[in-house]
Amino acid sequence: MANSRLAFLAATLCLLVHVAFGKGYATAGLSEAQQCRLQRIRATQPDERIESEGGVTELWSEDDEQFQCAGVAAIRNVMRPNALFLPEFINAPRLVFIEQGRGLLGITYPGCAETYHSDQSSGSSGERGRRWQGEGQQGEGGSRDQHQKVHRIRRGDIIAIPEGALHWCHNDGNEELIAVSVVDLNNQGNQLDQRLRAFFLAGGEGGQGRQQGQQSRRRQSGRYNSQNIFRAFDTEILAESFNVPIEIAQKLQQQSNRGIMINVRERMRVVAPDEDEEYDEEYDEEQEERMRRRRGPLTSQNGFEETFCTMKIKQNIDIRREADVFSRQAGRVNIVNMHKLPILRYMDMSAERGRLLPNALYSPHWSMTDHRIVYVTRGDAHVQIVGQNGQNVFDEQASEGSMFVIPQFFTSIIRAGNSGFEWISFKTSSQPMKSPLAGYTSVFRALPIQVITNSFQMSPRDAQELKYNREHQTFLLSPSRQSQSMS
Known about the structure:
Layout: H1 2-35, E1 48-52, E2 55-59, H2 65-70, E3 72-79, E4 83-90, E5 94-100, E6 102-108, E7 116-117, E8 124-125, E9 130-133, E10 146-147, E11 150-154, E12 157-161, E13 166-170, E14 177-184, E15 198-200, E16 210-212, H3 214-219, H4 235-242, H5 246-253, E17 261-263, E18 270-272, H6 275-295, H7 303-309, E19 314-316, E20 325-327, E21 331-336, H8 343-347, E22 350-356, E23 361-367, E24 372-386, E25 392-399, E26 403-406, E27 411-427, E28 434-436, H9 443-446, H10 449-456, H11 460-468, E29 476-477, H12 481-486
Antiparallel strand pairs: 1-2, 1-16, 2-3, 3-14, 4-13, 4-15, 4-17, 5-12, 5-14, 6-11, 6-13, 7-10, 8-9, 9-18, 12-19, 20-21, 21-22, 22-27, 23-27, 23-28, 23-29, 24-25, 24-26, 24-27
Helix pairs in contact: 4-5, 10-11
């Protein structure tokens, strides 16, 4: 009798636990669905500004419904010449677009070899004769240095930074380095909450601090805290971990009001390739990657080194001759996906760079695979986005410096202004697919005439025009005579 009671209680407890967990999952699913019940999307500017000694960090509001729907955070960093962005890592994969300038970027992976070596006598390093970038021939005090690869970055580059990978950047050019990035917080690599979390090895909030969006800062306390991670550790344990004197450990923990971008007192000297050499290396890496794809899946026992350690992390998306879609009358589109930059397969992200000529159209279409986070780099355009109920959730001009989200399956159309329109679009899929409504690859071309005539109550002649009037164009549509005369 006692055993049967225990069995009954156990069964009841299991049922209650199952129901409780079921409700929890149902509630979570409902909450996520509510995040994309968008009534209105707006083209927005950053709402928070963090001043540092060497530049400015601007953040778009994560509380904005459109960014919550896409599950992303957006950042714009403006680095002054000779500034250093201090080493950090973040909680989700990050895709970066270099809008302006040039510089050096380092990304470190645990377990990868330190392939860049300085030569104390000659200043050369490694194969291909890499040398110290900056003045002088060797490091401070004439000491040797060795480290993981340093990349030359320039305007138009798309850079892939996996979650948890430590990275830093130095502006060694003569103009400001402007980098716009999107972090995919919904990615499975992030097992924390849906907030941007940055972890810095050094630095501290700048003397001028956060000058805008103070209310937003209170709501999102700690989303981009620039205090370094060493300061809370016990100093003696830290010193023992590195096997260094206490004084050195204290330097790791010291407070600073210089911010997350600092001015370098003297020109930095790091082992890095020349610009021409860097892009020669990229060509070689592309050839190797093609051969690797032909060979099929990796069979090396050291799979990690065969992937992350040697994998390309950047691709220039602004090269005219490499356009994926091109029209002399409408513009061009360049795409970087997992086929061009294989590391994106792991990050499940991609990017699109577009240029529309004055009054040209980006065909009405929807994305089958991803949310799109669109940042305007030049010009302006009339953008319309329509949701599932046929309601217009976005119907306004998008201008330079603004950002907006086109959710998955929402249909959009873009018409460039009189000065043209340029943008970069960050996507939450490594192999994005779009379904156009007009042009020779459109869904109307695929539909039988009778389906169109009966669906829209039109004549076969009208249906023929819908199917074939843009017969030689797709995605990028030249302006009609009527729209040209109106402009």
